[in-house]
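tl;dr need the bound structure. longer version: we got a ligand (glutamic acid) that a collaborator sent over and nobodys looked at where it sits. i said id run it. heres the input, straight from their email, havent touched it
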Amino acid sequence: MASDSGTPEGQVVTRFAPSPTGYLHIGGARTALFNWLFARHHGGRTLLRIEDTDRKRSTQDAIDKIIEGLDWLGLDFDDAPLFQSDRAERHAEVARQLLAAGHAYKCYATPEELEQMRADQRAAKQPMRYDRRWRDRDGSEAPEGAPFVIRLKVPTEGETTIEDAVQGPVTVKNAEIDDYVLLRADGTPTYMLAVVVDDHDMGVTHVIRGDDHLNNAFRQLPVIRAMDAIEGGWPDPVYAHVPLIHGPDGAKMSKRHGAVGVEGYRDEEGVLPEALFNYLLRLGWGHGDREEISREEAIELFDLDGVGKGPARFDIKKLQNLNGHYIREADDGRLARIVAERLDGDADVDLLEQAMPVLKTRAKSVNELVEGSQFLFAKRPLEMTEKAAALLDDEARQRLAGLSKMLHVQNDWTIEALEATTKSYAEQLELGLGKLAQPMRAALTGTTTSPGIFDVLVLLGKEEALARIDAQAADAPGPDGNR
Ligand code: GLU
């Protein structure tokens, strides 16, 4: 473990500790990002721990998704992931050390007794909490061979203050912290114990996590302090409890606000990893008015002082705008490969790359790039949207037939030359260019929205472009109105 095997004195060690019960939650991704940035900023290490002790709810699929999501965001770790479930024996060992040193005790209360206790507390309108009935009793009072759990003996006097790096000082009276279970009757450790032991053994110096764990910190610290008293070398970590992400309505981010898993932003929203990285960074952390911040700058600038105390509100419009920005900055070849993957099978990556400067000018998502590129690979006869079909009336088809004649003899298949030809034809017909461009667009793409029409002509190439135009122009009536 890092602490024993040489985490240099003073080196920052952070960890991301997801429970693999679903997907990589957007809030979890931000926690991971903050841990990663903090460690990188301080030249430290950042580790991944999979908290899979809830065997029923943890799945391999969820583990894979979390790791894939982190990888996609470019968050790497400085060691192989640690699986909490592998370490039950070590957790139990610490529980026994605490027991031997008098910082924990055996509790023989039966489930029925505890149920009765809770019912009594409920009736008396008291807070429901274990009443410490075995704290000062001797084990010999228990029935022979009776099962027991090991509970932590939390100090009942005084109070505990955490100087949280985000929340500031937070104080809780020790009497309010319960003597919770460390080791169950079957000898398995509880989650609360496991976290503390793992953080220690991994050499974690800074615990950066969601503020839904702030209460847990007050329950975890007594274990740390007891172990420090027993064997030394268990310093308090620095805690940083980051406010959760809320939806635009101020309620905790949930499915009804849209995607909550990182993969949803990738697959359904068509967001690039650098956009989500930057958005999550700026969500709850600020550096002046800076909007776009590169990874390198983020590492340079990130610190916990910049993390806000209030919950951050998720704003999908902002993410989409930011995504548009990053799409325009992205390498065309890379975008072409991303889009090709989504167009099942044999999309021509080179053609996509060639089209990308045109496709990406207005796109706010990969989905829009995919949609915008569809015309490139459409097969004749083109499927027409209703609006496109409506544009292709007899008059329009006649015009296309005339245009086609001119384009057939056009050798210079460039935007400038095509534009010049089309304009002169429009002038000849005494029409605005739009009157010609709209049916051209319909014929060439089957839709009414596409990149600039001359870009479309060039990207399709002379042969395919004319074949598409002719497929519509062929139906044109002759000059006398007969077909
Ligand atoms: N496994 C916990 C969670 O996913 C995090 C525990 C921690 O960071 O201490 O919420």
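gonna send this back to them w/ a short note. Residues 17-19, 51, 195, 209, 213 surround glutamic acid (CB under 6 Å).
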